[in-house]
Amino acid sequence: MAKFDRLSALVERFALRVTPVENVQANLLISDDRDSARACRVVFCPTGPVQTDNSDGQPTAFGFLVSWGGAANPLLSALPDTVIYDTTDDPDMAGLIRLLRIEGEDRRCGSDTVLDRLGEVLMVRLLRTQIERGATSTGILGGLADPRLSRAIVAVHENPGKHWRSDDLAEIAGLSLSRFAELFVDVVGDTPMAYLRRWRMTLAHQDLQKGERVQTVARRYGYGSSEALNRSFRKQFGASPKEVRMSANS
Fold first, then answer.
1. What predicted TM-score, i.e. pTM, was given to this entire model?
2. Residue 90 and residue 172: Cα distance in Å, rounded?
3. Which of 24, 134, 135, 181 has the smallest C-beta neighbourhood within 10 Å, fewest atoms?
4. Where are the alpha helices (DSSP H) in the chain?
5. H or E segment at 39?
6. What is the rounded distance in angstroms from the CA atom of residue 169 to the CA atom of residue 167?
7. How many other CB atoms are found less than 10 A from the CB of residue 15?
8. Where are the domains of the chain?
């Protein structure tokens, strides 16, 4: 089976921004080993600033503020409250952090842009490790970690407006319909069609907040009419698409 890119659709849909900030504001911190002064740990808190007490004696090197769609992003909302990654056995991550340190200390022309981009690379690599570890999790992390289910989930992420049927997604996953439906519920915690509807509603909400027309959004995500979109939208958000669009324009 060809490998599917499990992150790109999410990164494209939810703008990933990683900006250097003072450590007290940071939700992504990099700590140094006290003895070697080399980076040894990355800590990420999706919902707020990292709370540090330095009880382990590891000094904080530098911090970033990560913005990636908040609770609307299914992957970000599925992460644990605190993600801790030990970099001591990962030379690639250690090399990336060295580049971050050099750019931060030298402050040469364009260093702010370089720091932002390197920070994004660091986050993508951190998210990869979380997906790989997600095989023991229930939810979207578990689904993306599964080599079969991830194929169907990525197809939904990349083409949400297609008139998907469970049979289509089962075929993409290489499973029988009954096995696919059973495994999807066991691993993701929802039916394939329920996940598809929720993903469509998330994207529709984003587009309406940008001021796009209700009818255009309805067609984009596979709804035959504005009324059909309205029913599903109101059920999930408690407001109509028109109300969300108007509040964004006010």
1. 0.84
2. 33
3. 24
4. 8-13, 74-78, 91-106, 111-133, 140-145, 149-158, 166-173, 177-188, 192-209, 214-220, 226-237, 241-249
5. strand 39-44
6. 6
7. 9
8. 8-134, 146-249
pLDDT, one tens digit per residue, over 20-43 is 888 888 999 888 765 555 667 899
Nearest to 192, CA basis, from 220, 150, 232, 234: 150
Q: Count of CB atoms within 10 A of residue 250's CB?
A: 5
> Taking 90 as the threshold, does the pLDDT of residue 135 lie above it?
no
What is the residue type of 183?
L
Placement of tokens 């330095």 in the chain: 54
**pLDDT per position as a tens digit, 70-80:** 888 988 888 88
**Domain 146-249 CATH (choose: 1.10.3720.10, 3.50.50.60, 2.30.30.100, 1.10.10.60):** 1.10.10.60
For residue 51, give both structure tokens: 């709370």
